């Protein structure tokens, strides 16, 4: 199984209206009323009115938002845009992220850029302090997508919403955080698949990284894709694969047998969700790209079969 770390695919948030309409006010009031009967706040990590879950998948999978009584208001993805949107929508201070970060550090759970998916070199993750300080909070600039024209009208609309959100909030790019470096080859590590096979050879080509069991397999892929092959076998023998040093200096082991496959599954699920929304919005139109939908759907089923 070839595990591939894709280019960052960013969930683009919905724009927040600085002057909510009466309909928005009513909807929010209904949401608060519904929340009064919700169960108490529950998440793996809770700081103020923000909760973060990570234990089920071995990496951060979702963010929860609570009212002052601890009732669940909403649950969203772990990305900067969604956090900015929902904290403003529900009047939650971004400083609540600071306590969540401290707890994640103590647990040895990666959340910062290049730490979210250990051993993959992925630039995904959020710098909470940068986000609190008015930065983008990410290693990549989520206001920009050079390939958006190839992704269809839905992606274009979402990018425009992201740009509007950043402008509305007055966000400024911090070059020390938002470096735009893409995958970091220095952070690549051997991966152990759900089949128990250790893959030590990593092909880094453009914005992707793929893992292979043998140097021959990696070289074959390199001949068609280009890039550079890294041999991580010595690192694997030293037991350094897919681990992270927590703040308390005790070694925290990440479930490397699942992390890469779950990462890929999460990305495909995200793609399918976004495309499904686009299809729903275009229902009755002649512009529905059903072939693309079926392609992603089949990819998702393939990954599901592999991780079962």
Automatic annotation (TrEMBL):
Top-rank lineage group of the source organism: Bacteria
Provide ranges: composition bias, Polar residues: 245-259
Q: Where is this region: Disordered?
A: 1-22, 236-262
Protein name, as recorded: Uncharacterized protein
| UniProt organism field | Candidatus Methylobacter oryzae
Taxonomic lineage = Bacteria, Pseudomonadati, Pseudomonadota, Gammaproteobacteria, Methylococcales
């Amino acid at each position: 199984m070839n595990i591939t770390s894709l280019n960052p695919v960013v969930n683009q948030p919905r724009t927040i209206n600085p002057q909510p309409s009466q309909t928005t006010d009513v909807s929010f009031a209904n949401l608060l009323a519904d929340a009064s009967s919700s169960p108490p706040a529950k998440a793996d990590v809770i700081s103020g009115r923000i909760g973060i879950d990570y234990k089920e998948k071995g990496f951060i999978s979702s963010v929860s938002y609570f009212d002052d009584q601890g009732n669940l208001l909403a649950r969203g993805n772990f990305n900067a845009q969604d956090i900015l949107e929902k904290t403003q929508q529900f009047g939650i201070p971004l400083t609540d992220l600071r306590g969540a970060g401290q707890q994640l550090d103590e647990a040895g759970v990666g959340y910062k850029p290049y730490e979210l998916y250990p051993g993959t070199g992925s630039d995904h993750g959020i710098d909470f302090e940068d986000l609190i300080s008015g930065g983008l909070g990410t290693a990549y600039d989520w206001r920009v997508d050079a390939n958006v024209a190839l992704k269809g009208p839905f992606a274009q609309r979402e990018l425009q919403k992201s740009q509007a959100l950043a402008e509305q909030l007055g966000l400024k790019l911090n070059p020390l955080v938002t470096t735009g470096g893409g995958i970091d080859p220095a952070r690549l590590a051997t991966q152990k698949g759900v089949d128990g096979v250790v893959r030590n050879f990593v092909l880094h080509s453009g914005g992707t990284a793929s893992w292979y069991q043998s140097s021959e397999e990696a070289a074959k892929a390199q001949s068609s894709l280009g890039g550079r092959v890294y041999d991580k076998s010595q690192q694997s023998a030293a037991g350094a694969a897919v681990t992270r040093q927590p703040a308390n200096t005790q070694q925290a082991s990440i479930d490397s047998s699942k992390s890469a496959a779950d990462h890929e599954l999460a990305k495909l699920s995200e793609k399918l969700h976004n495309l499904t929304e686009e299809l729903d919005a275009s229902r009755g139109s002649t512009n529905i790209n059903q072939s693309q939908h079926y392609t992603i759907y089949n990819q998702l089923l393939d990954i599901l079969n592999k991780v079962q």
